[in-house]
């Protein structure tokens, strides 16, 4: 109890000094708990939606790994309905006609499709829909010219009953009038949904009134879902393998599995950034307790003198850390719930509606947050507590401070240098690797070892780097600058720990900046080198192009030629007797002009002749393929063909790396029309000297298709840059938490340092140092520490990024581009961060009463 009372008294006595450490714990725990609450809420929301839409037993086409991806909705024969209705135990059969290969546009030719990545769904209205939605305005759809729109899409795009919408589907385009608005009974996760009567959905979405996309079966009273599934499977007989028959529970589980893969990526990515923030927070806590122990040296000595054991002193500091962890964690749990609500609001603004009323907080979430906060804080305080226990009573009463161990410092420096050297060797090995998988392992090892090495060797580096920085930055400020330099060098271990916290975040920023910039530069170079087409036409939502779109593009004026590109799935048998399922790029012969793929043997133009093909260099070597060899090619759902190898393409590219080419007419010869994949992309070449006119004509030709974008090469380069930039900005935003915690560490170190140097500050003021000079000294000390951390972080990050680029070069991204404007901006920004971090400590130092400061023990 004495230890607890002493710890509680010390904690409350130094609550101001503990505040920033508590904030660091709070932020870290909030990020962890917020991530868990957010993902659990999303999972619960989708679970409720899946449960409300699943039939007792569902029958749909079986998805096969080697299936031909046509881009058209998969269907089942309408005749299957009677067969399913005759199964014993089936009370009702509800056929569904659904397609996600549609785009919906309003009267202004503006797309109503979600921008969040959620699908646009067209489906038939029947009794099963009433489980999840209800019509709150208008009436059900009747006839081919009517449709019902979901309420969220209607609100977002200001659509009301009576408005006309254009539906762009694979079988063709058609207009409908909105006759009703349907509101979800559960949360709509962001999809745009349009409902039609069943015959319209069959004809307009699936292309046939003799087909459905799936069937929903209702079990008769007393018949279990599992039993009904068994009966349905038995009734299907030998053709059961062509169908996926699932109970409601299995359908829900399958839907959860597909969603779970996306949510898991999001969850673990967010938790990864939270882990970085926790790691940075450890440095802050270690520094805080180290300085508090140093400032209470005499107090600890008195405790030892009156009988306290080393263990009791050690335990007293650890109990303070426990209290700090509990307070910070409790605040963090509350902050995590608030963060989850904020993320839900953000997703709502992006189109994914999540109801905050369905916020899901599992019991494990606060327990996890509390455990992380407490364990991390106690572990971080262990070393300072151990040092406190080593203070001898006589040394403490002489104000000798915590024991210094020069031998330990030398051992630490040696370990740090060894780890750094090992990390550098691993990075060098990764840069010289010939295999991306092996190189990735070496890269990960190199990042880990070099990071730990820099952290451990930080105090040694501080002595050198801070002096160099001071010579450049501080010496111009005269005696004040020299005082700031000496203060930064006074305790290299403390300076190294403070700078290391900032170093971690900035190293990741620099590495990602180098990788992102190199990717953009490499892609731009490949476009300039390989793409000869003037225009690239594709769907913004990555869906294939409908025949109507391709026809419209081909009809545009001022165009020399149009090239179609699609991919077919085929089983290829090579001369060595091996067979493998491969993706075969089926293109128009003009593709040889539009994309200048380098060949090591033969000519690509020859590969686009009838019954000809090309193979990539690596594939040819692995299977002993030579020019003129005839390969057996069986296109899935089509007839077998014998294709002659007319070209071998180089693997030294990032565009279509590893692609096999054949003429699109050849693919159409061996595939039935209904199994031929839709065109994935169209390239166009302007007529000589008519580029501007061709651009205008192409854009006019697809004007009624808002999902189709016509881009020239500069537009495409900008698209790549914007996509990479958006990803990096999102990552930078997440890393900002770690940087904020690191800045709090600088603030806390300076604040405690000011308290530690109270008498010294009083003496400096007494001999003539003005308040303004005092504040400047503190600010300059902060700036040089921040710049030290930035220099280490940026240097380390650029090394990581350059190594990662060498691995990307194995995939054809061979340009290393250092984004110097970003690197310089981050370095200068670190100086600003240092200035801001010193504002409060410098203000407090400047306001000290000189006489009281000198009289301080």
Automatic annotation (TrEMBL):
Polar residues bias locations: 112-126
Instruction: Please provide an example of a Pfam family that matches this protein in its UniProt record.
Output: MacB_PCD
Q: Where is the composition biased (Basic and acidic residues)?
A: 61-72
Location of the MacB-like periplasmic core domain: 19-234, 495-697
Q: Which GO terms describe its molecular function?
A: transmembrane transporter activity
- Subcellular location as annotated: Cell membrane
Domain named ABC3 transporter permease C-terminal is located at 273-393, 734-849
The record gives the membrane topology as: Multi-pass membrane protein
Presence of the UniProt keyword Membrane in the record: yes
* Any GO CC annotation of this UniProt entry: plasma membrane
- Region called Disordered, residue ranges: 57-79, 96-129
Superkingdom field? Bacteria
Q: Membrane-crossing residues?
A: 268-294, 317-343, 363-385, 413-433, 445-478, 499-521, 730-755, 780-802, 822-843
Family of this protein: Belongs to the ABC-4 integral membrane protein family.
What name appears for this protein in its UniProt entry? ABC transporter permease
- This protein's species is Streptomyces albireticuli
Tell me the lineage of the source organism: Bacteria, Bacillati, Actinomycetota, Actinomycetes, Kitasatosporales
């Amino acid at each position: 109890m004495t230890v607890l009372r002493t710890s509680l008294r010390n904690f409350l006595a130094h609550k101001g000094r503990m505040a920033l450490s508590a904030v660091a714990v709070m932020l870290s725990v909030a990020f962890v708990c917020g991530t868990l609450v957010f993902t659990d809420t999303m999972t619960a929301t989708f679970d409720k939606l899946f449960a409300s839409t699943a039939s007792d037993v569902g029958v749909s086409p079986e998805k096969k790994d080697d299936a031909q991806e046509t881009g058209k909705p998969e269907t089942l024969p309408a005749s299957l309905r009677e067969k399913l209705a005759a199964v014993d135990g089936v009370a009702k059969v509800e056929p569904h006609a659904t397609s996600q290969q549609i785009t919906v546009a309003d009267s202004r030719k503006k797309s109503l499709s979600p921008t969040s990545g959620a699908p646009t769904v067209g489906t038939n209205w029947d009794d099963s829909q009433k489980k999840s939605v209800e019509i709150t305005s208008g009436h059900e759809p009747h006839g081919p010219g009517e449709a019902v729109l979901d309420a969220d899409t209607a609100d977002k795009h200001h659509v009301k009953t009576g408005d006309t919408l254009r539906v762009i589907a694979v079988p063709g385009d058609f207009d409908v009038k909105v006759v009703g608005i349907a509101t979800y009974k559960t949360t709509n996760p962001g999809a745009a949904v349009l409902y039609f009567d069943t015959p319209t959905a069959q004809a307009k979405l699936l292309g046939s009134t003799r087909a459905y996309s799936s069937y929903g079966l209702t079990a008769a009273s007393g018949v279990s879902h599992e039993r009904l599934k068994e009966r349905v499977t038995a009734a299907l007989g030998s053709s059961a393998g062509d169908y996926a028959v699932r109970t409601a529970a299995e359908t829900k589980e399958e839907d959860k599995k597909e969603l779970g893969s996306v949510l898991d990526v999001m969850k673990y990515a967010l938790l990864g950034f939270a882990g970085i923030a926790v790691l940075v927070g450890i440095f802050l806590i270690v520094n805080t307790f180290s300085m508090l122990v140093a400032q209470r040296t005499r107090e600890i000595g008195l405790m030892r003198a009156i009988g306290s054991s080393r263990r009791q002193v050690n335990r007293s500091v650890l109990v303070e850390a426990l209290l700090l962890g509990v307070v910070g964690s409790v605040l963090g749990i509350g902050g995590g719930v608030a963060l989850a609500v904020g993320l839900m609001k953000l997703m709502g603004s992006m189109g994914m509606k999540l109801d905050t009323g369905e916020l899901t907080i599992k019991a494990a979430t606060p327990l996890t947050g509390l455990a992380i906060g407490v364990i991390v804080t106690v572990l971080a305080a262990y070393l300072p507590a151990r040092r406190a226990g080593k203070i001898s009573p006589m040394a403490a009463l002489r104000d000798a401070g915590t024991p210094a161990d020069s031998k330990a410092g030398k051992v630490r420096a040696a370990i740090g240098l060894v780890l750094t050297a090992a990390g550098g060797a691993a990075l060098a090995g990764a840069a010289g690797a010939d295999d991306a998988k092996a190189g990735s392992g070496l890269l990960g090892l190199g990042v880990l070892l070099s990071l730990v090495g820099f952290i451990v060797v930080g105090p040694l580096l501080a002595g050198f780097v801070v002096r160099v920085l001071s010579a450049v930055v501080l010496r111009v400020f005269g005696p004040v600058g020299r005082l700031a330099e000496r203060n930064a060098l006074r305790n290299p271990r403390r300076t190294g720990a403070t700078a290391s916290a900032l170093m971690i975040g900035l190293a990741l920023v620099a590495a990602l900046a180098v990788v992102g910039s190199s990717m953009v530069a490499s892609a731009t170079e490949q476009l300039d080198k390989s793409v000869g087409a003037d225009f690239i036409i594709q769907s913004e939502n990555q869906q294939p192009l409908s025949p109507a779109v391709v026809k419209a593009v081909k009809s545009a004026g001022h165009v020399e030629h149009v090239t179609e590109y699609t991919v077919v799935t085929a089983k290829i048998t090579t001369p060595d007797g091996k067979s493998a399922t491969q993706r075969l790029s089926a293109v128009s012969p003009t593709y040889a002009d539009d994309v200048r793929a380098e060949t090591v043997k033969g000519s690509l133009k020859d590969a686009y002749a009838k019954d000809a093909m090309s193979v990539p260099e690596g594939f040819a070597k692995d299977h002993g393929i030579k020019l003129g060899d005839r390969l057996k090619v069986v296109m899935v759902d089509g007839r077998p063909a014998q294709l002659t190898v007319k070209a071998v393409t180089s693997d030294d590219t990032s565009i279509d790396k590893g692609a096999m080419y054949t003429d699109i007419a050849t693919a159409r010869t061996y595939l039935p029309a209904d199994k031929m994949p839709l065109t994935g992309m169209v390239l166009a070449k302007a007529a000589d000297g008519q580029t501007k006119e061709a651009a205008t004509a192409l854009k006019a030709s697809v004007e009624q298709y808002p999902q189709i974008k016509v881009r020239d090469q500069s537009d495409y380069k900008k698209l790549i840059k914007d996509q990479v930039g958006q990803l990096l900005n999102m990552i930078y935003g997440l890393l900002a938490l770690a940087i904020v915690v690191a800045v709090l560490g600088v603030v806390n170190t300076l604040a405690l340092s000011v308290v530690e140097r109270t008498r010294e500050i009083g003496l400096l003021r007494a001999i003539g140092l003005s308040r303004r000079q005092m504040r400047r000294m503190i600010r300059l000390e902060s700036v040089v520490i921040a710049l030290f951390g930035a220099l280490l972080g940026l240097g380390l990050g650029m090394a990581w990024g350059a190594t990662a680029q060498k691995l990307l070069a194995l995939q054809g991204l061979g340009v290393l581009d250092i984004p110097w404007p970003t690197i310089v901006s981050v370095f200068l920004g670190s100086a600003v961060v240092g200035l801001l971090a010193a504002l409060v400590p410098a203000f407090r130092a400047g306001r000290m009463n000189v006489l009281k400061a000198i009289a301080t023990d």
